[in-house]
Amino acid sequence: MKLSFFPGCSFCGTAKEYGESTLAVMSVLGHEFREIPDWNCCGASSAHALDSNLQYLLPLRNLVLAEAMDLDASTSSCSACYNACKLAEQHILAGGPHAEALNREIESILGRRFEGRQRFLHPLQVLSRPEELKKIRSRVVRPLEGLKVVTYYGCYLSRPPEVVAFESPEQPTSMDEVCAATGAEVRRWSWKVECCGASLTMPRAEIVEGLVDRLLSEALHAGADALVTPCPMCLANLDSRQGARLARKEPPVPVFYFTELMAMAFGLPRVNRWLRKRLVTPAPLLQRLGLSGSIVQTGRAAAGGGRQRRWPS
Questions:
Q1: pLDDT one-digit tens code per residue, 230-239
Q2: Dihedral of CA 110/114/117/121: which sign?
């Protein structure tokens, strides 16, 4: 597929490794991503609280720019960006006076309006198709055997379900299927779409730490070694708010983007650099499972404990 790609703000900074790994694995599978020219912030997490029009106009501008590229579909890996763009898309497609007014305003700025000729997808919608899963399995050169994970989707891909959910809003399976195709063992659990606290991590860190601690405990209770997520906000919270575990002198739990697992299984060369960005380094876990590369453990805490060391190549 040829898709217009909205990287969003996080892919240019805190989640740069997610953006790079997304582009890398999709390229391996034969999909072409073209960045939307002159894209703007979609306003996720804040615009809706400031201006009822701005929450639609910001992502709508990106949708119009993407539609002008005339590709198969539009996409963003960031869950919050996907949510914002999908809400705008569905609001305009539903029609009505407010939608028409928004479209007219965008047309006055860009000289184009959103016509709904292409849909906004999440990469998991593409990757979880049967033919894509078969392709993923065929590209695996290093099966992630022995790696036990739970998939954590978070809120943004499933809420509000009537607008953004592309599968079951309570028990999604797309990421489970993709991770299983890499050879990892996906464990069952009931916390796939529970909230991690999102942007409360700044004003009310103690709330987020409590939510994260419960999620990590439930993941371990399910028999997982690590969590896998498609959301930069979720990963940031899960990776950085493990203070309660550390205070109890319990080992921290590593967190991966699903695209990083794919890249590991595909044997791509830049995985080491991406994984070094974690505060909780997955190095000891991957070394124990024989999945290590040449990563230098530079995270704040080593999952499973142990001293800092360079892995053998």
A1: 999 999 999 9
A2: positive
User: What tokens were used for 47?
Assistant: 């615009």
Of residues 10 and 242, more confidently modeled:
242
pLDDT at position 307 is 35
Beta-carbon contacts of 170 under 8 Å, excluding residues fewer than 6 positions away, are 158, 192, 193
Q: Which of 39-48, 74-83, 159-168, 172-181 is predicted with the least confidence, judged by mean pLDDT? A: 39-48
Q: How far is CA 16 from the centre of its chain?
A: 11
Beta strand 73-75 with 120-121: parallel, antiparallel or unpaired? parallel
Bridge partner list, 74: 4, 120
Closest CA to 194 of 177, 208, 174, 175: 208
pLDDT at 49: 67
User: Is residue 301 scored above 90 in pLDDT?
Assistant: no
Q: ∠ CA(122), CA(156), CA(72), 5° rounding?
A: 15
As a whole number, mean pLDDT of residues 78-84 equals 95
pLDDT digits (tens, 9 = 90+) for 126-175: 999 999 999 999 999 999 999 999 999 999 999 999 999 999 999 999 99
Q: In a 3-state reduction of DSSP, which class is residue 234? A: helix
| Domain boundaries along the sequence of the chain | 2-121, 140-302
Residue 265 Cα distances to 186, 202, 280, 292, angstroms: 15, 35, 21, 12
Q: b or e along 177-201 (b: 16 or more beta carbons within 10 Å of the residue's beta carbon)? A: bbbbbbbbebbebebbbeebbbeeb
Q: Which amino acid is present at 312?
A: P
CATH 1.20.58.220 fits 2-121, yes or no: no
* Beta-carbon count within 10 A of 283 CB: 28
Q: Give the CATH number of domain 140-302; options: 1.10.10.1400, 3.30.1540.10, 2.60.120.650, 3.40.50.11810.
A: 3.40.50.11810
